[in-house]
Amino acid sequence: MRAWTALTSARKGGGPDTGPSPVDRRKTGSKHHLICDGRGTPLKVITTAANVNDVTQTLALVNGIPPVAGRPGRLRRRPDALLGDKGYDSNPNRNALRKLRILPVISRKGCPNIKGTGKLRYVVEQTFALLHHFKRLAVRWERRTELHDAFVCLACSLICWRRLKKSRT
């Protein structure tokens, strides 16, 4: 009987980095924030509670990009432009991105979308689909955030490895 009560009490809390879901407030959940390159290779993923606004994670994603090798010379740390949906619209974020010499391509709230961003936004949505194709990440089962983040890093590594393997053949 004690083992049963321990299991039910372990399920109730949800663990850190969980919050009320915007869809079903009765349940707690978490959300992935993702930044990727133009081909859909994930560069940085952050896990937050489900009720955290997207706009609060913009600079954390940009500052978390690791050095990317490309042409000979110094490794690149920042992109030339940042494409985001209306959830990332904020004047302070736009100004901070411009200070980092990054062009923000973000539609403003209450205005029509920037023409042509749908094709570019598809790359990010495809990367989310690849990430959530790993069933362990589509629904969060781990209570500890560091375990969930480890599975996210492993999934991103597998996505990158598969892309490299495909490009070499």
UniProtKB/TrEMBL annotation:
It comes from the Bacteria. GO terms for molecular function: DNA binding; transposase activity. Residues 23-158 form the Transposase IS4-like domain. Residues 1-32 are annotated as: Disordered. InterPro entries: Transposase_11. Pfam families: DDE_Tnp_1. One of its GO terms (biological process) is DNA transposition. NCBIfam families: transpos_IS5_3. This is Transposase DDE domain-containing protein.
